[in-house]
# Entry
Amino acid sequence: MTGIELKSSAFNDHAMIPRRYAKEGDNVSPPLTWSGVPDEASELALLCEDPDAPSGTFVHWLVTGIDPHTDGLPTGATTPGSHPHRNGYGQSGWGGPQPPAGDNAHRYFFRLYALPGHVSIPEAATADEAHRVLDRQQLATGTLVGLYQR
# Structure
């Protein structure tokens, strides 16, 4: 299994996510770029989750149907033809970090999956439901971890 390199121009791996991308800021998704998607991939899926949330792993972003020939997503956007699912806030698309005030910094795992075909994931999938599908079908994956604290 090969690896995908996933990066953001807004923050480095294991560094703080700027407030602009948080729920209390502009609440726009951060820019992402990637490389190393296998040629046989026919779809990409993106999952952002917070495993440190008090109620259990919280889905901040789940997008399926991303064109595997793209090399990234600009700030606040998805690609034509992709499908943003409902996040843990009950809204479609990105829902920025909003950990409880006073908590230690939470970790936000951005994971990009290269998939051999279309995946079927429930509209308001939990992180576990998404992982059951994506982890099983992936050709390759890449991870970027951001931190956020209020």
Observations:
- The chain is about 5% helix and 35% strand.
- Residues 127-137 form the longest helix (11 residues).
